[in-house]
Amino acid sequence: MSIEHFAPNWMTEEHQMVHDSALKMFKSWDHKDEEWRANGMIDRAAWEEAGENGFLCASMPEEYGGGGGDFGHEAVLIYAQAEANQAGFGGLVHSGIIAPYILNHGTEEQRKAWLPKMASGEYIGAIAMTEPGTGSDLQSIKTYAVKDGDDYIINGSKIFITNGQHGNLVIIACKTDREKGAQGVSLIVVETDGNPGFERGQKLKKSGLSSQDTSELFFNDMRVPQKNVLGGVEGMGFIQLMQELPRERLIIALTGVGAMKLGINLTLDYVKEREAFGKPIWKFQNTRFKMAECYAHYLASRSMCDAAIDALLENKLSVPHASLIKYWVTEKQCEVLDECVQLFGGYGYMTEYPIARLHADARVQKVYGGTNEIMKELASRFM
Question: Which of the residues 216, 234, 244, 248 is marked catalytic?
Fold first, then answer.
């Protein structure tokens, strides 16, 4: 069984073809899933396969090695990844978040140097914002950079960094002037291969997203050319972050919609096959009502996200709208998947079942990209 949704305005036949092709690739990784979860990260070869198939930087201009698409192409890739239950692949961060920072804020030299290598998979992108003592309050970061000749020397540490082990092109939020608060924040891009001041910490063990590469990063007198400050101008980091965060929050919501769709479909199949008291669980009114409620939450969430995609494509997605969509969809994602686990009964709690993994993976959606409490605080400031 499969739930349906009307085709949104932004989706073309090309978008659908990209979705279907990507879904096929992501599903072909199923046989590696257990190994990747045990290792705490997917294989580097998976990144290379995605690059070969054109699924990295699909929305970047062709002149920089990208696919020449729009955000709709990123959206269908995110939906396909979620529907295949491959939450461990960090491509949505790499292509949907890191690449736009470089495209929208980088110099022409930076775009030409980094985006083609990201599109091929030679470079894997990460963004390092969160620190052990600083989460949503980015003005309070401690990592700092000082000038020395033509370089910056960076010291500090970051935590909870997606693509932290594989990443070799890392955008670091740091203070280039520790006296100026938000105006002293800069984004500096580091090509980490061969840099002796760069150190990866341990792969972090999480209660969900077991195959997602999440790490600590350390910078010990790390030298980076001054020309690597994003956009070539110091002190613009906080503004750059604020301009790009609505996109990141929409991406989180999209993953929630994809996870809901998969969870509902898995549960529909289960309740129509599983019997209790001599009949399928589906025959009980409570089951049908619960599934109808879940479907309604999915439809509402998908519609909100489709409208937000339309807005983003027209450069009209606002901070409060993106914040509230991220908050609302991730809350509904957790509610829906909790209902699905309940209908699976004891089997829903067994990690060998995809529904249990979807449930575990969902919880962090309300935390990263800005906690849902911060989302409501941000939105309320515009009311």
Answer: 248
Q: What token pair was written down for 74?
A: 């990123």
Q: What does DSSP assign to residue 51?
A: H
Same domain (yes/no): 194, 212: yes
Indicate the pTM of the whole model. 0.94
- Measured between its terminal Cα atoms, the distance across the chain in Å is 42
Q: Domain for residue 4, yes or no? A: no
Does the annotation count 244 as an active-site position?
A: no
- In 368-377, which positions are buried (b, 16+ CB within 10 angstroms) versus exposed (e)? bbbebebbee
Residues of the chain with pLDDT under 70: 1, 135-137
- DSSP designation for 106: S
CA-CA distance, 107 to 101, in Å (whole number)?
Answer: 11
Task: State whether 256 and 150 are in the same domain.
Answer: no
Query: What is the tally of structural domains in the chain?
Result: 3
pLDDT per residue as tens digits for the range 267-325? 999 999 998 899 999 999 999 999 999 999 999 999 999 999 999 999 999 999 999 99
Phi, psi (rounded to 5 degrees) for 171:
-85, 120
Residue numbers of the domain that contains 341: 239-380
